């Protein structure tokens, strides 16, 4: 029967049909595990100072971040403080921390850390004011956010 | 005529699409780790007992608004000098520690300092005071904090190497990996040996 040619049997190609599934799985993993919620900065992006003795902040979910830096508008001087998506006054720092605490479980509150991301040009006065406010409400764990590097000269 | 089989939709390009998305997410997401110098603020209490501290037990660092550093009110130094000065001050061990309850104070047996009677008595008594001006830049402030921190870390490292053949940083890493109580004990001992006592008075206006 020459009508039906016998097909030559070679090695069957490896099925790639499951490849999309694997890739999608990876994709979902990345989509879920990475947090896209980096707050939009209303102040000019702070250039963090460098330091050598840095410690990584563990437990990111327990960290509340306070940004300190210059206003985007160059005509406005002085340091601005930003939390979440708004610029606030130093006196509003406690209410921000209280709001952050309310989101956490009660037993986690004592492990909460405040990370201060301040521009290296910011003045110490502003930072110490924030620290004083944090002391008032017993938020004692503070981390001065820095980048790792040994070029201390560039800090000042 | 043979019936044509239902042609399957070609899923081969699906992988490409998914890969494209994957790469997009890989590139756009920043896995940035937040790291920094951690500090514990002193608790606020109404009834602070008056304590008298000997002048020699305090290392006075003052920064003015032009980022100039003055140590003990006399020496004008650079940031990079602070570490050595602080280490010499903390590790001096010229006297005895504060008495613990019944026990009288004992001299510092692990200190390798100069034992200068005019400098600090004991690491547990040595206080570093950082007086800054409101106009000091934050970069300077962090640099000084960093130097102080590194002074303490180096002293702890030295003691750890001597006692446990392992640096303090390694011990910290060990503890993070294993969480064993034995390592914790060592870390606590080192921390007790060189406790960080940093005082920050009200800034100058």
TrEMBL record, chain A:
Membrane association type: Single-pass membrane protein; Single-pass type II membrane protein
GO cellular component labels: plasma membrane
Subcellular location: Cell membrane
GO biological process, one term: protein transport
GO MF annotations in UniProt: transmembrane transporter activity
Keyword Acyltransferase among UniProt keywords: no
Record-annotated membrane-spanning stretches: 12-32
Main subcellular location of this protein, as a coarse class: membrane
Keywords tagged on the record: Cell membrane, Membrane, Protein transport, Transmembrane, Transmembrane helix, Transport
PANTHER family with a match to the protein in the record: BIOPOLYMER TRANSPORT PROTEIN EXBD-RELATED, EXBD MEMBRANE COMPONENT OF PMF-DRIVEN MACROMOLECULE IMPORT SYSTEM
Family as reported in the entry's similarity comment: Belongs to the ExbD/TolR family.
Protein name per its UniProtKB record: Biopolymer transport protein ExbD
Organism of this sequence: Lutibacter agarilyticus
Higher taxonomy: Bacteria, Pseudomonadati, Bacteroidota, Flavobacteriia, Flavobacteriales
Automatic annotation (TrEMBL), chain B:
Protein origin, superkingdom: Bacteria
Major place of residence: membrane
Membrane-topology descriptor: Single-pass membrane protein; Single-pass type II membrane protein
GO molecular function terms attached to this record: transmembrane transporter activity
Subcellular location: Cell membrane
UniProt keyword Nucleotide-binding present: no
Pfam families: ExbD
GO annotation, biological process: protein transport
GO-annotated cellular components: plasma membrane
This protein's UniProt keywords: Cell membrane, Membrane, Protein transport, Transmembrane, Transmembrane helix, Transport
Matches recorded under InterPro entries: ExbD
Similarity field: Belongs to the ExbD/TolR family.
UniProt protein name: Biopolymer transport protein ExbD/TolR
Organism expressing this protein natively: Lutibacter agarilyticus
């Amino acid at each position: 029967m020459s009508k039906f040619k016998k097909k030559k049997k070679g090695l069957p190609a490896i099925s790639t049909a499951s490849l999309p599934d694997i890739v999608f799985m990876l994709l979902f993993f990345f989509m879920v595990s990475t947090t896209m919620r980096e707050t939009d900065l209303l102040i000019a992006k702070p250039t963090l100072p460098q330091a050598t003795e840095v410690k990584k902040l563990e437990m990111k979910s327990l960290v509340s971040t306070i940004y300190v830096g210059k206003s985007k508008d160059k005509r406005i001087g002085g340091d601005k403080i930003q939390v979440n998506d708004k610029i606030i006054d130093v006196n509003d720092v406690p209410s921000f921390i209280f709001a952050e605490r309310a989101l956490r479980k009660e037993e986690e509150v004592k492990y909460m850390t405040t990370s201060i991301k301040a521009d290296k040009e910011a003045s110490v006065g502003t930072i110490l004011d924030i620290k004083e406010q944090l002391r008032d409400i017993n938020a004692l764990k503070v981390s001065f956010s820095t980048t790792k590097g040994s070029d201390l000269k560039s800090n000042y | 005529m043979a019936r044509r089989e239902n042609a399957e939709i070609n899923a081969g390009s699906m992988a490409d699409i998914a890969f494209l998305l994957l790469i997009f997410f890989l590139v756009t997401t920043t896995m940035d780790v937040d790291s920094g110098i951690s500090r514990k603020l002193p608790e606020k209490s109404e009834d602070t007992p008056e304590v008298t501290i000997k002048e020699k037990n305090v290392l006075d660092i003052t920064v003015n608004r032009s980022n100039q550093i003055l140590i003990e009110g006399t020496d004008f130094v650079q940031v990079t000098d602070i570490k050595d000065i602080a280490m010499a001050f903390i590790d001096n061990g010229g006297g005895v520690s504060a008495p613990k309850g019944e026990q009288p104070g004992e001299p510092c047996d692990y200190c390798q300092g100069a034992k200068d009677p005019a400098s600090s008595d004991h690491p547990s008594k040595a206080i570093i005071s950082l007086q800054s001006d409101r106009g000091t830049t934050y970069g300077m402030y962090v640099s000084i904090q960093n130097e102080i921190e590194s002074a303490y870390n180096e002293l702890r490292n030295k003691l750890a190497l001597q006692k446990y053949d392992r640096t303090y940083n390694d011990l910290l890493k060990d503890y993070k990996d294993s969480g064993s109580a034995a390592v914790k004990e060592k870390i606590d001992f080192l921390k007790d040996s060189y406790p960080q006592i940093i005082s920050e008075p009200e800034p100058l206006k």
